[in-house]
């Protein structure tokens, strides 16, 4: 113990306890050394990082942080500058987003303007807009605002009416008479269904009756109407090919070619009406001649109201009618109609009566 400069009176246990304290002291000294080494390294890294931050601040023309003072104060200064830079960076980013949005809106507006300009192009559209009267635009805007206000007022009125209707519906739903009203509604529904069914049956029956009536009128008419249809078709060039007498009526009707519209005599022109009557006279005379005796047919200026084509067709028809065995005497004071007879009915004899004395 004397060699180790220990107390000679130190017991073995005391010596062991002393050794433990020595080891603890050595560990504490080691940790302090490691802390000093870490601190020095951290300070070096702080100086390097601070140099980078100061270089960035110098590029941005901002005040630099003093790195030669107290380390903690330097760190706080660097953190403050970094936070300020981050805040400005966030503002710049927001401004960038706004500018990008505005750019997109500008591109969309420009595209819409190009589409609206059409063939005249943007220059033409710009010139047209510059030529607009600002006062007129203001008046149009005022009129549009007035119209919008009127529509909004109308909408408010409709909403009020809807509110009243909703209130009425709620009142009816809570009314003691609702059950009775619902029963009456169901009864009305049943009556309506029955009426619709009856209407359908009657409508189908009426359709079938009209179809049968039309079939009879077209296919079961007497010989007089069949011949009159033939004669009228010849005189009108096929414009009207059927003469009918509606079932249960005493009137005549003509039908346009191809199953077209039916018309009464009052709906025809004067010339067509006279052609209808001539066709009926010829048909009646033909049937009478077939059943009894052929009598002469006397006509006075029957072609005077016909146009040239129908006058020629009527003259040819009268010539064929006479060749079938019925004598036709046609009087006229018009040289033109006499020439029509001569041209369309070659077998006809043209007799010029002497003028009265």
Structural summary, described in words:
- This protein has helices spanning 12-59, 71-117, 121-130, 134-174, 178-219, 223-235, 270-291, 308-323, 335-344; strands spanning 240-244, 253-256, 262-263, 297-300, 328-331.
- It is mainly alpha-helical.
- Among the domains are: 12-92, no CATH class; 221-344, P-loop containing nucleotide triphosphate hydrolases (Rossmann fold, 3-Layer(aba) Sandwich).
- Strands 1-2-3 form a three-stranded antiparallel beta sheet. A two-stranded parallel sheet has the order 4-5.
- Helix 1 (12-59) packs parallel to helix 2 (71-117) and helix 6 packs across helix 7.
- It is elongated.
- It starts with 11 loop residues before the first helix and ends in a 13-residue tail after the last helix.
CATH topology annotation of the domain at 221-344: Rossmann fold
Quick one: how many beta strands?
5
Uncertain segments are: 215-220
Largest sheet: 3 strands, antiparallel
Order of helices and strands: HHHHHHEEEHEHEH
Q: What is the distance, rounded to the nearest whole angstrom, between the alpha carbons of the first and last residues?
A: 195 Å
Number of helices: 9
Secondary structure topology:
Blueprint: H1 12-59, H2 71-117, H3 121-130, H4 134-174, H5 178-219, H6 223-235, E1 240-244, E2 253-256, E3 262-263, H7 270-291, E4 297-300, H8 308-323, E5 328-331, H9 335-344
Parallel strand pairs: 4-5
Antiparallel strand pairs: 1-2, 2-3
Helix pairs in contact: 1-2, 2-3, 6-7, 8-9
Using brief descriptors, characterize the structure shown.
mainly alpha; 9 helices; 5 strands; two-stranded parallel ribbon; 357 residues
């Amino acid at each position: 113990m004397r060699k180790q400069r220990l107390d000679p009176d130190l017991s073995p246990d005391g010596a062991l306890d002393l050794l433990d304290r020595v080891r603890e002291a050595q560990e504490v000294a080691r940790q302090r050394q490691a802390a000093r080494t870490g601190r020095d390294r951290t300070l070096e890294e702080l100086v390097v990082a601070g140099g980078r931050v100061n270089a960035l601040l110098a590029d941005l023309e901002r005040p630099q942080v003093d790195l030669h003072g107290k380390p903690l104060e330097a760190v706080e200064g660097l953190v403050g500058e970094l936070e300020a830079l981050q805040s400005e960076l966030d503002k710049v980013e927001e401004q960038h987003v706004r500018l990008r949005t505005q750019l997109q809106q500008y591109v969309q507006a420009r595209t819409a303007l190009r589409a609206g300009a059409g063939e005249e192009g943007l220059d033409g559209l710009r010139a047209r807009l510059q030529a607009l009267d600002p006062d007129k635009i203001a008046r149009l805007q005022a009129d549009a605002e007035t119209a919008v206000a009127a529509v909004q007022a109308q909408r408010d009125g409709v909403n009020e009416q809807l509110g009243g209707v909703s209130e009425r519906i709620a009142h009816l739903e809570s009314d003691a008479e609702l059950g009775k009203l619902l029963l009456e509604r169901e009864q009305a529904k049943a009556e309506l269904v029955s009426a619709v069914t009856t209407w359908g049956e009657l409508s189908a029956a009426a359709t079938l009756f009209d179809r049968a009536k039309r079939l009879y009128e077209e296919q079961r008419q007497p010989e007089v109407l069949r011949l009159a249809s033939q004669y009228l078709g010849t005189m009108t060039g096929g414009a009207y090919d059927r003469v009918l007498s509606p079932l249960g009526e005493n009137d005549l009707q003509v039908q346009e070619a191809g199953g077209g519209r039916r018309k009464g005599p009052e709906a025809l022109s004067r010339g067509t009406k006279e052609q209808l009557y001539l066709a009926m006279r010829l048909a009646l005379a033909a049937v009478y001649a077939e059943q009894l005796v052929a009598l002469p047919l006397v006509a006075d200026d029957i072609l005077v109201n016909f146009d040239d084509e129908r006058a020629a067709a009527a003259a040819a028809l009268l010539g064929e009618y006479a060749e079938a065995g019925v004598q036709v005497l046609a009087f006229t004071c018009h040289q033109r109609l006499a020439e029509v007879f001569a041209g369309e009915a070659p077998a006809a004899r043209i007799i010029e009566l002497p003028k009265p004395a």
